[in-house]
Design goal:
About 10% of the residues lie in helices and about 35% in strands. A six-stranded mixed beta sheet has the order 11-9-13-18-15-16. The protein has a five-stranded mixed beta sheet with strand order 6-4-1-2-10, with no helix packed on it. Strands 12-20-19-14-17 form a five-stranded mixed beta sheet, with no helix packed on it. It is built from four helices and 20 strands. By secondary structure, it is mostly beta strands. It is globular, with a radius of gyration of 21 Å. The termini are far apart. It has a domain at about 210-350: Sandwich (Immunoglobulin-like), CATH 2.60.40.
Length: about 375
């Protein structure tokens, strides 16, 4: 797509998005949607959006086959190679999944996961992004990559209406860990629906090898009705504007990184976590209970801090964390604004290996259980 064509298409696409949002505002305010409207034709696929009040007269039942969204993979290391052209193709699509027990939500996603796919390139690479918008959608989408030096981080030229495609490329000039997200107005709503991810730009020569790498992002969800209420929830713009989320979670759902999805390591191994805060509103105070982070990339850049207990990551920010557990056990990671753990902001690292009494040992256990936090 050439620059002239992009300029000619930009206004109609933005207009389509704005008109769709205005239609949803009007229909929600009336309490019903006319059976013949475009919104009604796609209400099942797009029931995750409520542009009006946080109260909903009736709530649809959660699907009987409700399951969690799949977890995105960690992109493989770049290694020690020269610059090259790297192409990524992504699709903006809506997927209904499990946000909490009995709580369904229609996510807006990149490639059907929350967060979207992890992109990984080398400093000096030319990165080509192809963004499709699924034909079943009803609003425009786009992508803003914080690693881009260019208008809107790419969003200015990637606004695509349903069934359409945009292509652009950029030079990855700055090594670091960066957030990407949909930036179609209102961008906060698209992020709160699940449209975000990370792009890692490795320095020349690549990152040092480690034993395990993981991909974790924090975000908020603002729903109609009450937290934990069974059913298929819509989004509440009122709660989003009040910055009062029902859920604060890692990787798109309560418990997404616990149980069978716990991060795994052995004692003495080095664990690298690419961590981002999508927001759209809350700053994360990321903390691994029972561990001191060996190194933290300050604000995701080249400055490295060591021996860190808690690192602050703002909305739209990211970091790279490394730790090396010495003692076996389960290590919970949280947003240390700890009331948010009650809204879902908790994951787990399961560490196996021999006991290490030189580092930690129990002299006399307490009598009130083994919990904490």
């Amino acid at each position: 797509m050439n620059h002239t064509t992009t300029q000619l298409r930009r206004f109609p696409i933005a207009l389509i998005s704005i008109l769709a949002i205005l239609l949803l505002v009007a229909t929600t305010a009336c309490g019903t949607i006319d059976e013949g409207s475009a919104a009604t034709k796609t209400s099942d696929e797009h029931s995750g959006m409520n542009m009006g009040s946080s109260a909903t007269p009736t709530m649809a039942a959660a699907p009987a086959d409700l399951t969690s969204l799949p977890q995105p993979a960690v992109a493989p290391p770049v290694g020690n190679r020269g610059p090259q052209l790297v192409k990524y193709e992504m699709t903006a699509e809506q997927v209904t999944g499990k946000l909490d027990d009995g709580v369904a939500f229609t996510y807006w996603t990149f490639d059907g996961t929350v967060p979207g796919p992890m992109l990984r390139v080398r400093e000096g690479d030319t990165v080509q992004i192809t963004l499709h918008n699924a034909p079943s959608d009803i609003v425009a989408h786009s992508i803003d990559l914080h690693a881009v030096s260019g208008p809107g981080g790419g969003a200015s030229v990637s606004q695509v209406s349903p069934g359409h495609t945009a292509v652009f490329q950029f030079l990855a000039e700055h090594p670091g860990t960066y957030v990407y997200h949909c930036a179609t107005p209102p961008a906060a709503m698209h992020i709160a629906m699940g449209m975000f991810g990370l792009i890692v730009v490795e320095p020349a020569g690549g990152l040092p090898a480690v034993d395990h790498e993981y991909y974790v992002m924090q975000s908020e969800f603002y729903l109609d009705g009450a937290r934990g209420e069974p059913g298929l929830h819509q989004m509440s713009t009122d709660k989003m504007l009040d910055e009062n989320p029902d859920y604060v979670v890692f990787n798109g759902a309560v418990g997404a990184l616990t149980g069978d999805q716990m991060l795994q390591a052995k004692t003495g191994e080095t664990v690298r976590i690419f961590f981002g805060d999508a927001g759209p509103n809350l700053t994360s105070s990321f903390h691994v209970i029972g561990q001191v982070m060996k190194s933290v990339a300050v604000e995701g850049g080249s400055l490295i801090n060591t021996d860190v207990q808690t690192t602050v990551v703002p909305p739209g920010g990211a970091t790279t964390i490394e730790l090396q557990p010495d003692v076996p056990g389960n290590y919970m990671f949280v947003d240390h604004a700890l009331s948010r753990t009650l809204k879902g902001a908790a994951g787990m690292i399961h560490v196996t290996g021999p006991d290490n009494p030189g580092v930690f040992q129990t002299i006399q256990p307490g009598d009130a259980g083994t919990g904490g936090h």
